[in-house]
Amino acid sequence: MSPYRIFRMLLLRWHRRIGVVAALFVVVLVVTGIAINHSDDWGLDKKPLKQAWLLKHYGIPSPVLRSFPLNKPLNSGAWLSQLGDGLYLAETQIGSCDSPLLGVVVLPDTIAVLCAGRLQLFTPAGEKLDDISESLGLPRGAEALALDGEAVLLRTPAGVIAFDPRSFMFSAMSVEGVAWAAPALAPPIIQRSLLDQYRGSGLSWERLLLDLHSGRLFGSIGVYIMDLAAIALLLIALSGVWVWVSKPGRWKRPS
User: Fold this and answer.
1) Any bridge partners for residue 159, and if so which?
2) pLDDT tens digits for 161-206?
3) Alpha-carbon distance 239 to 52, whole Å?
4) Which domain holds residue 110?
5) Do 151 and 242 belong to one domain?
6) CATH number for position 127
7) 213 and 113 share one domain
8) Residue 251: inside a domain, yes or no?
9) For residue 26, how many C-alpha atoms fall within 13 Å in the half-sphere facing its CB?
10) In a domain, 252, yes or no
């Protein structure tokens, strides 16, 4: 057998082997490519990822959920929670707080929310009324909230301070046996809803498909693997053309 025929048979054999290996990458590229092209039509650019293992892979941690039950003037079954920097009334975000949530109390027409260094006031529907920081008069070191009639009590290192939400006045108060608002576990349905919202924010299915298409989902190694797959496809194309062109008798004219 001539060296030419040996080389051609060897090339054909490796053409098939490389084709089998590259087939998997072709499927991934085709499926992800079509999905990316239609991501707007299918809503993939707005559909958040909720799978915990994928979010963990992207370095999105599971935040601490801190919740306070709201008392009966508003709704005996309602909760106010902090997840990340967001404040949520039941399952709806109503504001933000970049410091720990320390207490929540409810008056007939106001929800008072204490974060470290900030006292925020909301309507029962969740609309923000005011935001009082320490620079605007909030007693320093306020660490808990309670109710005394229609006054909001704040526990501070200097003692108990009463806040009147109508006059926006703070005054020292001597009181004992205060039932300070305490956090509790929100119902599982609220916990799941808030965690899904938090984990899915900023990371869409379109982003996942783009990273899978480019190999970046698996880090720098994935990028190099996709580069090798692209080279393999190029070799398949070149070897396939050469095998077809070099087939004996391909260019002979019929007699």
Assistant:
1) 156
2) 999 988 899 999 888 889 999 999 998 899 888 887 776 666 788 8
3) 44
4) 62-200
5) no
6) 2.130.10.10
7) no
8) no
9) 12
10) no
In DSSP notation, 162-204 reads EEETTTTEEEEE---S------BPPPHHHHHHHHHHHHHTT-B
Predicted confidence (pLDDT) per residue in 85-135, tens digit: 899 999 999 999 989 999 999 998 899 999 999 999 999 999 999 999 999
Q: Are 142 and 132 in the same domain?
A: yes
Question: 48: which DSSP letter?
Answer: B
Position 83 in a domain: yes
Residue 137, token pair as written in the block: 């008069």
The three-point CA angle 74-76-81 to 5° equals 80
Asked whether the whole model's pTM tops 0.85, one would answer: no
Show the DSSP H helices in the chain as ranges.
Answer: 3-37, 39-42, 52-57, 188-200, 205-214, 219-245
Are 53 and 107 members of one domain? no
Residues 181 and 210 placed together within one structural domain of the fold: no
User: Among residues 107, 117, 174, 97, which one has the least CA distance to residue 146?
Assistant: 107
| Mean pLDDT (whole number) for 200-221 | 83
8 and 37 together in one domain:
yes
Tokens of 100: 């720990």
Terminal alpha carbon distance of the chain: 27
Which residues does residue 67 pair with via DSSP β-bridges, in sequence order? 81, 184
> Do 10 and 103 belong to one domain?
no
Provide the token pair at 2: 């001539």
Residue 217 CA to residue 37 CA, distance in Å, equals 19
Do the domain assignments include residue 127? Answer: yes
Q: Are 154 and 114 in contact (CB under 8 A)?
A: yes
Task: Tokens for 36, please give them.
Answer: 């990316």
Quick check: 115 and 81 in contact, CB under 8 A?
A: no
